[in-house]
Design brief:
Chains A, B, C, D, E, F: Residues 278-287 have a biased composition (Polar residues). Chains A, B, C, D, E, F: Pfam families: Mn_catalase (PF05067). Chains A, B, C, D, E, F: GO terms for molecular function: metal ion binding. Chains A, B, C, D, E, F: Mn(2+) binds at residues 35, 67, 70, 160, 193. The structure is a homohexamer of 287-residue chains. Chain A has 287 residues and is mainly α. Among the domains of chain A are: 19-85 and 126-208, Up-down Bundle (Ferritin), CATH 1.20.1260; 217-261, no CATH class. In chain A, 46% of the residues lie in helices and 4% in strands. Chain A has 10 helices and 3 strands, in the order βαααααααααββα. The first copy, chain A, has helices at residues 19-30, 35-47, 55-81, 89-96, 98-104, 111-114, 118-122, 149-173, 177-203, 281-284; strands at residues 2-4, 228-231, 257-260. A two-stranded parallel ribbon of chain A has the order 2-3. Chain A starts with a strand and ends with a helix. In chain A, 71% of the residues are buried. At the C-F interface, helix 3, helix 8, helix 9 and strand 2 of C face helix 3, helix 8, helix 9 and strand 2 of F.
């Protein structure tokens, strides 16, 4: 079960509120690279973890719980960035941009409102919501928890790699020193989280964990296709050469090679449509 | 641009059609672990690949193109498994299960129809569709293409790891020798695809690719938090120990340690609701 | 504005309630071939119809309003088919299937519950909901209203063609005479609705409405590609011959021909990743 | 920030695992009446709460944190109910149901697999996932946090009312004593949560909180329509009479009455389609 | 069944079309607080209403039918606000903003186009669509119809409370007198609709309707947790005090109290992964 | 199976990159009128095509394969249009718009960033993604493949009609000569694709293909309603007259007429809520 402390994990300060930056921060809350995703992903992996070694369950729970606090920090940052947002178009014109108003006849600019997520104004009363930066709600199909620990750890590395890439982009986009400070902390945590899931893969044996799942007897797969890079080009140009076309495979269980792909099957033949199946008559009985 | 050959990449045969297996195969078509996802993911990564080394773009294009053929094989397998599916409840009762009909008074069993995706009957005329095994349509937010090659390669390893886990589960669930043969081929290809994306990461420098993105100056992150595992337990039990709590970090740039998390920030203070923002009066003016 | 009469447009009777048929009927309510879709589609087309001839706006409004009544009939049919559904697994075992219970030791069958949409039991209290037959909620992106009347009329023909195909499949699946009667009415209305949208296209000039939109000066398109069927096969087999590869085009503005497709462009060249864009270092600076 | 204790808030025991009950429990995890929803809803309301009285923010945080533990309990219950689920169709036939196998020739029943969420088998390795009982992923658009405290409290009462209705249905469907015990606890908590949000509304003034938002000057609304029930029937039958058609309004600011609705506006007139807007020619220039 | 009158329920006039306001109005059409939602919600509640008192069914039908007319008014308002929207970027530059063009060299501003929903231009030909103000299509999972009348009435109060909050925000954002007039009518109707659903709850007994559902025997719930507010803080600070922590409960069936939450269960123990379940070998057999 | 050539089907050049045009082009990639949709639609129709005449399967495969190349062209166009997009707000201010900066004090304009899809900056590193122009991901429920060839051909005409309408709107919006050239090619292909599906319908018999499905015996439908236009107006104004209210029907199987709709059914009567169904007590037992 869970507990909270009213204080934030790390300080969140905003000196100059910026409603467009509030919008951009939404990606780190409700985007597929964001914190709701990793939080729920680590929780569902933990709650479903099977196997004799419960350490991974514990490890996941600690970090999942930390991630709730990251959503909280970002939601706070969004609300603070929206503090002075114009509520109406008039407000924009009348208060916020006197110089431009002069140029534009008191009618414009409205781009501050135009660049906002409209739901920040219309649906939340100037607060964060569980959507991405373009307003699309987070959808929990992105919570990857496969029941295979190694697959899940790679999913977690991916989530933290795209998450840190996003955080870096936000850092580069940020002007506000408070926001830069907050992001420098979140970037550091993403560094660690990438590292810890990779460490777990190493603990699971590294190459010995491959191919995933490693509990399937490879004698049952068509092994002549297990380590061959298939080219699908028509130009007569061979596929690119690289670590993946020659030498020992990464799992040490085969040798990489490369081959041009060709059809091994025939054109498929499906049965005709059956009476009563709602097809056209011509699909049922030959004309 | 693209070309096709009417023949399949690998033979697809079904001796004993089974509409429930048709349903299960849908997960490999339109599930998040499925082939539409990897196909579009590799295409979008290729089409957006930036950088001086165009080999990764090429490598992605070859494999993306191969994946179209995998969707085709699976869609064919679904259609073949639906060949003899009952179109109606009566048909089930009247033809398919005489023994049970005797026991059950000619009314039942209908579970063959009940276990089907209803849309296989009602929407497709007994053919595959781009949904998962529970009928949820594939949604392209699962196409990960971050603009960071290393993050994308980890996303690809993940996709093939969950994809091979799914294919193994389908193989274990399959009775039909034709289906087992087809899956033994797809499992082999997933083996290779896991390997080739890992090989690409090695080519990018392995640990040198980390933390992702490696183009961000780590001096700008709060480095005291970059390699520390934070425990969030309240029971007085320390976090689990492992490769991730001591010793050199995976990227060789730090030393792992572990620490109990504590709040470093304060309870957040948001401004009151503003007049005209649609809040309750009490949120605007103190009572 | 709108009015209602408590009575249904056409009688809805169910003699033998069947919870699986309730599930199948959901496709006609909240499926993409269903009545919510056509209802909202005709309304949004009507409400946005521009042009001097307001007859199409009126025509759409009449039929959109009729469709509300069709949703109502189907929702009533779902509720009636759920009247005697088992609320619990015990109820199934204890009451509904004594013969099977004897055979199976009082534990089974539960397939009546298993074949139901679980939300019919858990979320609605045995009533219809705006989802399809596999439980996926209707999503209004399927409301096609393009602002081009001819495109919209084809969208409407399509909706009624797939709608009538669905209704025919449901009719074939139905045992209950009341349900067959209701569906025989809905099928007839779908017949008419297909006809009326086709009649509208004829009124708009038939071939003169093509290509859609007909307000674009065809001199601005690359006309050498406007009436040529492009083959993309690699087998050396030419594309299939038919009405679409020779003779005058359907719009009378060209001659059909067929050609093997070949690349006319070059391999694309994108600029390298920019500093600060979150890419890997190798994408920014050549190694 | 947040902390966890490895122990559950309340015991979760399953004596007789049942994969269909696992499916039904999913509704309480990822359904719109479920625990992910209330958890995130209370969090986002708390994190965005504005106003001088921070008690509501605190109150929401306490309960939001409790709800994480409820998701955890339910996810554990799903995993335990899936412990003995058949992994394959053969396994069903060969092991699980010998009596039926005898009757049915060793081929059947497969309805245990057929009644499962296929993704429990194929995507999770027998664990919970953030979807509803029909496999639809939870989507965060259901997190209601409007920025108006009174509206949010009604949203919370609604969530707990539908949540307790669901929990009662699950209790009625449950056979397992451990599951009944767990649900008797969750039902009690839903009782309290309904009560506490209603108590908050009373604290906000009850009728004085109405109409929501109470910060809008009612003089600006067309008050002759503010307390009148409008009938839309065509049968000549007046609207139903009740508390809502006569007597003082609930907020004490008006008198209820009832009236037949009639059009007060005209048929709308939109401008013709503009050149270059992609309409048909006929929409742009009269024929 | 249903009928229409071509005239609008209330006049819709736009003096100065504004494409950004068109965008904002979309929230009231296809947002979760919008009119499609209440329309379909009241219809599905009516069509599934069970119980001896058919008045609630009737009451719901009258108001559901009224709501179609509100969608119509808003769709008309969107189309009118888009009348003069720029179709292209050039048009913006060339016609609409000569002063800025002078300053900016004829290149800009384009923010009028930039602030629009692009689909208003590209997909609708300048008309309304069933999406929210950020372009997300309405999804019918938001149609709450639980089969429990009291739960549904609270859902309806919530919908009208968030709906009126939205309408007030739009009123505050509106400059156009026609739009303000239309919104003053819609706000009044939302006032009434809040009132009428609350009146229905009072008719159902007010506190006697609680806890919802009131048909469940409370002796079956763990009543020691039915009226206690559980604190989940770790700071040693007790939960906030209020109407919800002391005194008689709202339903008169208990006494409120407050307590710090503690774990009553144990850490969950799941069985190991089973052979053939696609897990890693280490999850199946201890190393 | 499938092959690729690295070269594009048609040249894609961008002289003046424009991030807003990149956004608009997204509609042609991941919008419901876009190329992912037609590509997958033709593939799924081909892979599920049943009937003796395999020409339609072949015809669909050729064009489906062509459409992959169209997605590729558009994705390339998006990436090229994003080449010089500002990565940060500062960059905008500092580099891109010196004149405005002077006027606005170095703070603005940011509308170039504001008008972008934020995910182009934050999630893709300046590349295309499978979403529409407002950032909503493509969802494969839009892949229409009904199992009825005639219905599918109308669906294809519709897709190409809305697709060409979109392409025309993009052409009108485009300033860049390279973009206009690319679009003039895509418009031409849409012309042909409209034509070829209409030609297929003619081959299937034109009117003889109607009503769809033509395999249903019309004697089973309530034929008195099969060719009558039903009016639903209350104003006493008859429905509009047209080709659809008089004369022979389009399929030559009936005569059009028009009639005012009236209720033929009764008000529906549902059974009361059952004990244990989670309803309110009042719905179960009369008060």
């Amino acid at each position: 079960m869970y507990f909270h402390d009213k204080r934030l994990q790390y300080p969140v300060r905003v000196e100059t509120p910026d409603p467009l930056f509030a919008r951009q921060l939404q990606q780190a809350i409700g985007g597929v690279e964001g914190e709701i995703r990793v939080c729920l992903q680590y929780f569902f992996q933990a709650w479903g973890a099977r196997g004799p070694d419960t350490r991974y369950r514990d490890m996941l729970l600690h970090t999942a719980t930390e991630e709730i606090g990251h959503i909280e920090m970002l939601a706070t940052a969004v609300a603070l960035n929206l503090e002075n947002a114009p509520l109406t178009l008039q407000e924009t014109a009348a208060e916020a941009h006197p110089v431009v108003n002069a140029v534009l006849g008191g009618e414009r600019p409205r781009h501050v409102v135009e660049g906002m997520l409209q739901r920040h104004l219309l649906s939340t009363g100037l607060a964060a919501m569980p959507t991405n930066a373009d307003g699309v709600p987070f959808d929990c199909s992105h919570v990857y928890a496969s029941g295979n620990l190694a697959a899940d750890m790679y999913a977690n590395v991916t989530a933290e790699a795209t998450g840190r890439t996003l955080a870096v982009r936000l850092y580069n986009a940020a002007k506000d020193p408070g926001m830069r400070d907050m992001l420098s902390f979140l970037i550091a945590r993403d560094t660690m989280h990438q590292q810890q899931w990779l460490a777990a893969i190493e603990e699971m044996g590294g190459a010995a964990a491959l191919p995933i799942p490693n509990s399937f007897d490879q004698a049952q797969e068509r092994q002549e296709f297990s380590y061959v890079y298939l080219g699908t080009g028509t130009e007569g140009v061979p596929p690119p050469e690289g670590r993946f076309t020659a030498g020992p495979s990464m799992d040490g269980r085969g040798q990489f090679s490369a081959l041009q792909a060709t059809p091994m099957g025939e054109a498929p033949v499906l049965g005709p449509a059956r009476p009563g199946s709602g097809a056209q008559q011509e699909q049922i009985v030959p004309r």
